[in-house]
Write a structure and sequence with these properties.
Elements: H1 2-17, H2 22-34, H3 49-64, H4 74-91, H5 96-115, H6 123-151, H7 171-191, H8 199-219, H9 222-235, H10 242-256, H11 262-268, H12 278-296, E1 310-313, E2 316-318, E3 324-326, E4 330-333, H13 340-373, H14 382-401, H15 411-436
Antiparallel strand pairs: 1-4, 2-3
Helix pairs in contact: 1-2, 2-3, 2-6, 4-5, 4-13, 5-15, 6-7, 6-8, 6-15, 7-8, 7-9, 7-14, 8-9, 9-14, 12-13, 13-14, 13-15, 14-15
Length: 449
């Protein structure tokens, strides 16, 4: 039944997309984020669904969409350079078979990110994409939130619709994305036009934010707790009464702490005791190995290069009260990077890392410029600073979480970058039009999606 339902959905989408090609862009966002082929049993697993929908999106834009004024932004060029560099390093990868598997989805994610801003030529389209991305991730978060409330979750035990601990269904990854999603939810709650902010929208937004905040409890991902702390600090930028906000935050922590599962509090306690935690000690050892590997291979070892590592981990254990002794060292092999920064360094070398950092830092800078420029805009443009702030805060949370999770090319976060570029390009195009006709009142953008 699941297969037939998805096939019916795709056929209906094909019929609608022939008239409104942007729907194919939204469909690709859903397919790339949720990966519905994982939820089915046979039919959709046998076809390259994401590639098909991506081709429909690109074909619809080329054949039926309005391409007037479409321009390539500097960050799109950098994304294409990173895509080309990843292809080059895949050619000399130390593990060619495994590298080819990762390249199969990475190139599509990067190529779609570079293409996406070309389609975002109206406010309605940008809002539709933000809403579609939010609801797509929400389908996973809501399931995780309900299961957390019912069972308490557990490290590696929370099943998020599929029994597959990879991609967005991996605990630390979905915890990071869930917290990064909160600023976008708040923006849509305040400035949404597709679903105007009435009582029902506000109630759903509050419930979804609650699910985002408790998901790290269910996954017991320490990265999620760190991201919640970053979110709390970022919210200080916009609150009017900071003292009241900090007081409410402290009260919420005091009320929630006794309700948390013991396994969660014990695992969070290991954040400051990394020497006694094998997982944290292994990460540090892998990071040291990656740095040494990059010094020997400055151009990178290609995707999955971590499989060559062999690290010796020395942990500590407690023997009695206050007595800490060295435990026997552990030899570990082929341990993942557990950091987007070291992932890029080990796989793509210093050139790839610099390109990736340029994409990220360029987004933070451009969103800050837009945020300040439209901070005191009137009601008609009030949404612009709000969206720029939401995209910037989401990216900051992602960059902090990415320090502990290898999500350098996570499709959802790449789409946020595409949305940043689209917003920036749309504002520049509008300003160019105003300068070209200074004595003519600008016409409202076409509402068509």
């Amino acid at each position: 039944m699941r297969d037939l339902a998805f096939i019916g959905f795709l056929l209906a989408l094909l019929g609608l997309g022939l008239r409104r090609p942007f729907l194919f862009v939204l469909a690709y966002a859903y397919v790339d984020i949720v990966a519905p082929q994982r939820l089915t049993y046979y039919l959709l697993n046998a076809v390259p669904l994401s590639l098909i929908v991506a081709m429909l999106a690109a074909g619809g834009w080329l054949l039926a969409d309005d391409r007037r004024g479409a321009r390539i932004a500097p960050r799109q060029i950098v994304i294409l350079l990173l895509l080309g560099w990843c292809g080059v390093t895949t050619g000399w990868a130390a593990f060619p078979v495994e590298a080819a598997d990762k390249w199969d989805w990475v190139w599509k994610a990067l190529a779609f990110t570079a293409f996406l801003p070309l389609t975002l030529r109206t406010r309605l389209r940008m809002e539709a994409l933000a809403l579609f991305m939010t609801l797509s991730v929400a389908s996973i978060i809501i399931v995780g939130g309900i299961k957390t409330l019912l069972s308490g979750g557990g490290y590696g035990a929370l099943n998020l619709m599929v029994d597959n601990n990879s991609g967005l269904y991996e605990g630390s990854t979905i915890s990071t994305v869930a917290i990064a999603l909160v600023p976008l939810i708040l923006h849509l709650r305040r400035h949404g036009t597709i679903y105007p902010p009435d009582g029902r929208v506000r109630l759903f937004a509050a419930a979804l934010i609650f699910a985002c905040l408790i998901l790290p409890v269910g996954t017991e991902a320490r990265t999620g707790l760190v991201c919640i702390g970053v979110l709390g600090l970022l919210m200080l930028r916009d609150v009017r009464h900071r003292g009241a906000y900090l007081g409410a935050l402290a009260a919420a922590v005091l009320v929630a702490a006794p309700l948390l599962p013991d396994s969660f509090t014990q695992r969070m306690g290991t954040i400051t005791e990394y020497k006694a935690d094998q997982s944290a000690s292994t990460r540090l050892a892998v990071w040291r190995w990656t740095w040494d590997f990059a010094r020997e291979h400055p151009l990178g070892g290609g995707f999955e290069a971590y499989r060559a590592n062999r690290v010796v981990v020395a942990t500590e254990r407690t023997a009695g009260i206050g007595n800490t002794v060295e435990a026997n060292p552990i030899i570990d092999k082929a341990r993942a990077y557990h950091s987007a920064y070291f992932e890029m360094l080990g796989e793509q070398g210093f050139p790839g890392l610099l390109l990736w950092l340029a994409i990220q830092l360029g987004g933070l800078w451009r969103m800050e410029v837009i945020r300040r420029r439209y901070a005191r805009a009137g009601p008609e443009d009030g949404w612009i600073a709000s969206l720029a702030t939401a995209l910037q805060h989401a990216q900051i949370i992602y960059l902090v979480g990415a320090a502990f999770v290898a999500i350098a090319v996570q499709p959802f976060m790449l789409m946020l970058i595409g949305l940043q570029i689209g917003l920036d390009g749309w504002l520049k195009a509008r300003d160019r039009g105003a300068r070209r006709h200074p004595f003519v009142r600008p016409r409202a953008p076409a509402p068509a999606a």
